[in-house]
Amino acid sequence: MTTVHGTGTTAGLDAAAVARIRADFPILGRTVREEKPLVYLDSGATSQRPRQVLDAERTFLERHNAAVHRGAHQLAEEATDAYESARSRIAAFVGAGEDEVVFVKNATEGINLVAYGVGNASVRTGLDAASERFALGPGDEVVVTELEHHANLVPWQELCRRTGATLRWYAVTDEGRIDLDSLELSDRTKIVAFTHQSNVTGAVAPVAQLVEQARAVGALTVLDACQSVPHMPVDLAALGVDFAVFSGHKMLGPSGVGVLYGRRELLEALPPFLTGGSMIELVRMEGSTYAPPPQKFEAGVPMTSQAVGLGAAVDYLGQIGMDTVAAHEATLTAAALEQLCAIDGLTVVGPPGAELRGGAVSFVVDGIHAHDLSQVLDDRGVAIRVGHHCAWPLHRRFGIVATARASFAVYNTTEEVEALADGVRAAQKFFGTV
Amino acid sequence: MQIQQMYQELILDHYRDPHGSGLREPYDAESHHVNPTCGDEVTLRVKVDTAAGAIADVSYETLGCSISQASVSVLHDLLVGKSIDEAWRILGSFQEMAQGRGQVEPDEEVLGDGVAFAGVARYPARVKCALLGWMAFKDAVSRTDLTIDMPDTEGSPA
């Protein structure tokens, strides 16, 4: 089913290997804006999908489609097997047990699931003793960072509003990293939520230190792994985080499916978020009991072809090898930083070096608003993201309204990095700023 | 390059040298509009001449791209001194052009320099940029005592 891209090494991918990978992605062959080859540098927003993922979804729908975990007919069995097989492969991909992986529609829903589960525990009525550990109240603290995507900020603001807990946050350094010295956790800190890799600055968080600090005060950790799982080897159990989330569509998989990881004992104790069919154990008019996780958190008929597609995506990434993916993207990132920093009037928002940093490269150009910059790039076929990238407080921290962001995936080439730098220079010429 | 259809020289001129920018006193109403997808902002004040039923001044501060800044500069040129009915007609015409996906032929008699934004209408992601200041103006005028006889402009505020 999948092609083996055997020439990848931990040193990265040679040009021929990247060309073979690109051949798996039909969309990368198209042209835009009057026959310009597409240079897709917006994988941080959503990645493109290889044929293997598209084929897996189509095959599932053409051969095995049925509602999973209900029905005793053959298709129901096959669909359930495909769905659960995807779960176990995805779990293995991130070092988790298969009962520690909950399918959600995206990472945003995953974070909300935890926040609402905690909120439901905080109501403190009808709780079993095990759920008590999640209960928040006035005086308790939820800690985030100034680096967060709105998805890992707003749900916690809302949880604090509902429970009376206080939101606190780590500040960000001038390099766009979490400033560990900016905040001290207290014994009232119950949750520490942070991004593994910033979607704006690309900074990789010191997960071990944050986990250690959180554990020292008995706080739970929630890791936003949206920008790390698609780009580097991630072993959630080894990282020691309590919860983590990532989205399918950012890792060569379908949209409409994401993953919440939770340590087994925590998922067992966390009250449900969405309730209804599928997630129950026993239902009576007076009340209900719930299935063990992950089913407890998968109410209703779930997405199926999307989960199967995400299974194919982790197979695809696994065949290339995440060490190889990371090495290749590190090469692209280093090249982008070098070429962009050489442009007069361009400032990178984030660490200037490629160490402890992923392939989201955000920048501003003197005298040219990010929107205008991206319009010139778009005219040359180069697709980047502009705006605040759902990290408005971070942009405010740097005193800027909007940045331009190039973000890489395994299918990008060094020629595309050059096209980016050429496009920035063309924009400067067009707007007469140099 | 297609892009020159969007960035007409006239737009770039207004961007580099905006007309009537800066917030001025006195004013009758102020509005602050934000484009939540990109964070661009405009603060816009309107001074009306109630006796004449006219727009006496429009002053503004913007944080944003060339399109949003040039657009509010053109707005200043087109609307200051106009009767409120006339201003509303121009606003409606500009909005119709901007939201017309390039299918609406702009009326230069009504829109003057505003026709330069016809190219922007071909780029749906930038329509909000072109309309940011105009929607702020609409909002500010609605907070004054002026009564508008013209039917409301069509389409939802961007």
UniProtKB/TrEMBL annotation, chain A:
Named cofactor requirement(s): pyridoxal 5'-phosphate
Domain of life: Bacteria
Catalytic activity, as annotated: (sulfur carrier)-H + L-cysteine = (sulfur carrier)-SH + L-alanine
GO BP: cysteine metabolic process
Enzyme class per UniProt: transferase
Molecular-function GO term, any one: pyridoxal phosphate binding
Keyword line: Pyridoxal phosphate, Transferase
Entry-linked Gene3D superfamilies: Aspartate Aminotransferase, domain 1 (3.90.1150.10), Type I PLP-dependent aspartate aminotransferase-like (Major domain) (3.40.640.10)
Pfam annotation, one family: Aminotran_5
Aminotransferase class V domain residues: 39-420
NCBIfam families (alphabetical): sufS
Function: Catalyzes the removal of elemental sulfur and selenium atoms from L-cysteine, L-cystine, L-selenocysteine, and L-selenocystine to produce L-alanine.
Protein family (similarity comment): Belongs to the class-V pyridoxal-phosphate-dependent aminotransferase family. Csd subfamily.
Protein name (Swiss-Prot/TrEMBL): Cysteine desulfurase
From TrEMBL, chain B:
A GO MF term: iron ion binding
Any one GO BP annotation for this protein: iron-sulfur cluster assembly
Pfam families: NifU_N
Domain NIF system FeS cluster assembly NifU N-terminal: 6-129
Gene3D superfamilies in alphabetical order: 3.90.1010.10
CDD domains reported for this sequence: IscU_like (cd06664)
Name recorded for this polypeptide: Nitrogen fixation protein NifU
Organism: Pseudonocardia ammonioxydans
